[in-house]
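Bug #77: duplicate submission created two jobs. Keeping one. Sequence:
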Amino acid sequence: MRDLPTNPGFWAEVLQRIRRRTRGAAEAEDLLHAAFLRLERYRAARPVDNPAAFLVQTAVNISIDEHRRERFISPAPLDDYVQILADSSPLQDEVLATRKRLQRARQGIAQMTPRTRQVFLMSRVEGMKHKDIAQRLGISQSAVEKHLARAILFLTDWTQGW
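Kept job's structure:
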């Protein structure tokens, strides 16, 4: 049984072989250290003919084991679970309150004059521009703006406190 060399060249060569076999793993020195500890335990029971090969192969095996452990055992980040479990839908009480506000707004819209209601719905629901509403209804753009102002002011007062 050969004793381990103490020259730095031997250890640099073993470390370089570990880096090559583990694809440049940054933790090559840690792998060499863990492999050395296993070599010492193994040598206590049986002889090792080629300690350099033993160290390199053991370091590679440790690297593979760590990779498997990280891939299969380590839990996914908590953020992944939060995104999966997060429910972005509104709460039931929020839905109920929104329905009540919508019903109140519908009642207010129903109380507007027919022309003001028509201009308001064309603008807010259909998304039409003032100029297009004026052309369709045969009124001036200024009249469209006045109807919208009336509708918004009325709904603001109508929904006050809701």
